[in-house]
């Protein structure tokens, strides 16, 4: 396979230079948005390029896809109208029946959807994939066709060892897909660790400005599965629209510097929160006592991401803090330049992977001292608490909770 243009550049350079393309006829520095849904034939009934019709594909979309593929060191990438749309495209392209193993600690919207794939003739097992013994047992019990992992995982920020999972999955011929939304290619490139597919909610960090809904799939190499996903996307027209692809391209240009600033601030806030008497537990993979810190050190380069969660005395304390912050905005979603705080259990219901005393923090690019001052004042007046009875340090399997 020939090297793709830009593949040899470092990510930060790729991010700045590739997404905007080139406005060829006029040499505009910033590429234009191509909106045409159809392309004319010439006198000999030939097309000027391989573009024919807009449902399948579009030059702006392709440009943004090439940039994302280069950043992930992927063979190819496709953009969809949302992260969910990208994830669902993988499942819908599987042969039937297929068996899927998915990480038990993962984005709730997708977990809920995956729980219902029986209606498409598939079976699903949710396993704590940070526990490789549990994963190996599940693979032995029923060899999967697809292993779906999310790392860091939402909202506990558990780290799954991609290389170890790929070894176990590939031994039985299963495809490994990694939801790398939170890591971004800046901190982890799953294909380097053996992943076959990478998925992102580009609504989050890749776009970074809370104004585009988009999803990414990237593939390490060509495969029948990838061709089926591409065909279905072309037939259904579920590719990202040109305007949104252009906005995403603009967001990508600052990805590397945005997420590094966010991770640095998240690390600062995590250290300060650990020392706060009203905070029972801080969940951040960059902290030395995080249960997966050693894996994070191996697998994440240059930072541990901009997401962290804190656990307070109880749900009332968590909701009180969410109600008192001023700079942090109370909203769902993550990865934008603005800091958000969310009581996840209000959204997804409490469970072993989402305690009701937990607040999820998406750290933006504001001054970390301002973010700290706002949090500190919101925490003020809450009594001191002990570590929780069910600390995240102890895996759910050890706690006796079935994942
Ligand atoms: C938001 C999110 C998704 C879903 O993406 P949408 O763009 O909202 O469809 C999937 N995985 C993770 C980790 C997410 O944070």
From TrEMBL:
Keyword presence, Zinc-finger: no
Modified residues (N6-(pyridoxal phosphate)lysine): 204
GO biological process: cysteine biosynthetic process via cystathionine; transsulfuration
UniProt KW Transferase keyword: yes
Domain of life: Bacteria
Cofactor: pyridoxal 5'-phosphate
GO cellular component annotations of the record: cytoplasm
Keyword line: Pyridoxal phosphate, Transferase
GO-annotated molecular function: cystathionine gamma-lyase activity; pyridoxal phosphate binding; transferase activity
Coiled coil feature spans: none
Record-linked Pfam families: Cys_Met_Meta_PP (PF01053)
Similarity remark: Belongs to the trans-sulfuration enzymes family.
Protein name in the entry: PLP-dependent transferase
């Amino acid at each position: 396979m020939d090297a793709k243009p830009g593949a040899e550049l470092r990510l930060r350079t790729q991010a700045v230079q590739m997404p905007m393309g080139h406005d060829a006829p006029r040499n505009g520095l910033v590429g234009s948005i191509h909106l045409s849904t159809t392309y004319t034939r010439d006198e000999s009934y030939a097309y000027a390029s391989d573009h024919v019709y807009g449902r399948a594909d579009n030059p702006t979309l392709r440009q943004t896809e090439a940039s994302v593929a280069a950043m992930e060191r992927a063979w190819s990438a496709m953009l969809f109208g949302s992260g969910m749309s990208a994830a669902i495209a993988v499942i819908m392209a599987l042969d039937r029946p297929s068996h899927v193993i998915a990480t038990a600690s993962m984005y709730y919207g997708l977990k809920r959807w995956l729980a219902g794939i029986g209606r498409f003739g598939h079976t699903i097992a949710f396993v704590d994939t940070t526990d490789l013994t549990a994963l190996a047992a599940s693979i032995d019990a029923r060899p999967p066709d697809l292993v779906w992992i999310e790392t860091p995982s939402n909202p506990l920020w558990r780290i799954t060892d991609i290389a170890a999972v790929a070894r176990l999955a590939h031994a039985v011929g299963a495809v490994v897909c990694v939801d790398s939304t939170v890591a971004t290619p800046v901190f982890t490139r799953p294909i380097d660790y053996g992943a076959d597919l990478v998925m992102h909610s580009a609504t989050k960090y890749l776009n970074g400005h809370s104004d585009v809904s988009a999803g990414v799939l990237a593939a390490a190499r060509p495969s029948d599965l990838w061709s089926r996903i591409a065909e279905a996307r072309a037939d259904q027209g579920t590719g990202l629209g040109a305007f949104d692809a252009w906005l995403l391209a603009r967001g990508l240009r600052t990805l590397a510097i945005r997420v590094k600033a966010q991770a640095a601030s998240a690390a600062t806030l995590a250290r300060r929160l650990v020392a706060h008497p009203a905070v029972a537990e801080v969940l951040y993979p960059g902290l030395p006592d995080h249960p997966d810190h050693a894996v994070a050190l191996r697998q994440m380069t240059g930072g541990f991401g901009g997401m962290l969660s804190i656990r307070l005395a109880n749900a009332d304390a968590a909701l009180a803090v969410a109600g008192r912050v001023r700079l942090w905005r109370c909203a769902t979603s993550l990865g934008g330049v603005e800091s958000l705080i969310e009581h996840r259990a209000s959204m997804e219901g409490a469970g072993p992977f989402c305690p009701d005393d937990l607040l999820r923090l998406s750290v933006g690019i504001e001054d970390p001292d301002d973010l700290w001052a706002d949090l500190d004042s919101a925490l003020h007046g809450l009594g001191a608490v002990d570590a929780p009875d069910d600390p995240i340090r102890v895996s759910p399997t050890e706690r006796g909770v079935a994942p």
